[in-house]
Amino acid sequence: MSIKILGIETSCDDSSMSVLEDGKILSNVIYSQKIHEKYGGVVPEWASRKHVEAIVPLFHETLERASSNLDQFNAIAVTQGPGLIGSLMVGIGFAKGLSLSTGLPLITVNHLEAHVISLLIDEPRPSFPFICLTVSGGHTQLLIVRGFNDMELIGSTIDDAAGEAFDKTGKLLGLPYPAGPHMDKLAAQGKPVFTFPISNLPEYNFSFSGIKTSVLYFLKKKLEEDPYFISKHLNDICASIQHSIIEMLLIKVKKLSDETGITQIGIAGGVSANSGLRNKLNELSVKLKWDVYYPQLQYCTDNAAMIAYVAYHKFLQKDFATADFEAKARFL
Ligand code: KG4
Ligand code: ZN
Asked: 114 C-alpha to center of ligand 2: Å?
């Protein structure tokens, strides 16, 4: 018997659904909400409303792209948290409704665990144990992954996430939200000639609030001297900010690899799309004999394929949820 699972992800500002069959992704559809761009950040109330608008057309498109009918499915998987409560509730409500009407079992998935497991969707895959750095707009985590259900959180951010550091400093430069991909492109044409602080907390935690403040004061001073400073030096400023963020992340990965001897390294989450980070990691992998892994781009940012993939393994273990589960804003 083949196993078919519908994955649903609505934890933040992307509505996504995916169909998986026997561990293979047949479709992964993502509706990104544009409305937040004009506010320069995610507005939770808008996020929930846009999920409500998207969810039914998204469901039909996802099934159609996978040439699937609802009566072929074995389970419905949904993100339980962490995330915005109003957003999570849209996906969860839809999943519970489908389950009630079809009798299919429900599987709940932790969004952060799913980002880690996104590294295993395609070949080449890291083997256990591997170090995972999850870097997204909401989270920055360093983990040792020993198995599907065996992840040890080693460090995380004490303030902003790495993606937020890109987005908030990019906003100061007048870049559109989310600024990360824009900064990536501009940085590729610049040089890191300006110096911003590289915070290095004891042990394995990260802090990104310092760079935001430092960029703010740096720009204030430079703009007083020359009102066109940003437009004249935009590429170099972006390259310098990106350089600092990458250093802060990789110092910890290197420390953990040195200390544990683990040389299988995976990078997940939206910021793993950053080309500067990938270049630097590729350099390190040659120097330090690391094997470095990234998910496909469509599995880096928020997506339901990673939810369905975790759910497939939970299905094999008969790890089902009862219908009374609730959304969890925090879920470590
Ligand atoms: O994983 P994700 O889609 O959503 C969250 O769970 O947060 O990550 C979104 C974050 C945003 O902060 C965005 O600016 C950042 O990932 N991002 C990037 C790049 N692409 C996305 N940051 C730097 N360089 C990129 N190429
Ligand atoms: Zn995410």
From this structure: 9
Cα-based distances in Å from 158 to 200, 241, 251, 331: 12, 19, 16, 16
Average pLDDT in the 305-325 region?
A: 97
Is 108 in the same domain as 172?
Answer: no
Distance 163 CA to ligand 1 centre (A): 5
Q: How far is the CA of 272 from the centre of ligand 2 (A)?
A: 11
- 230: domain CATH number is 3.30.420.40
Q: Which amino acid is at 327?
A: A
Q: 332: pLDDT confidence band, cut at 50, 70 and 90?
A: low
Ligand 1, pocket-test mutation among 136, 184, 246, 267, most atoms within 8 A of CB: 136
Is residue 326 assigned to a domain?
no
Please indicate whether residue 81 or residue 149 has the higher confidence score (pLDDT): 81
Site to substitute for ligand 1 among 32, 245, 274, 301, most atoms within 8 A of C-beta: 301
Number of domains into which the chain is organized:
2
Q: Where are the beta strands (DSSP E) in 203-268?
A: 264-268
- Picking from 238, 242, 247, 284, the residue whose alpha carbon sits closest to that of residue 265 is 284
Residue closest via CA to ligand 1's atom 16 equals: 270
Residues 81 and 151 in one domain: no
Q: Is the domain of 290 the same as that of 306?
A: no
Distance, CA of 4 to CA of 86 (rounded, Å) = 28
Identify the bridge partners of residue 151 per DSSP, sorted by sequence position.
145
Query: Is residue 329 in some structural domain?
Result: no
Q: Residue 284: inside a domain, yes or no?
A: yes
Backbone angles phi, psi at 134, to 5 degrees: -100, 115
pLDDT tens, residue by residue, 144-174: 999 998 999 999 999 999 999 999 999 999 9
Residue-range definition of the domain harbouring residue 72: 4-116+301-316
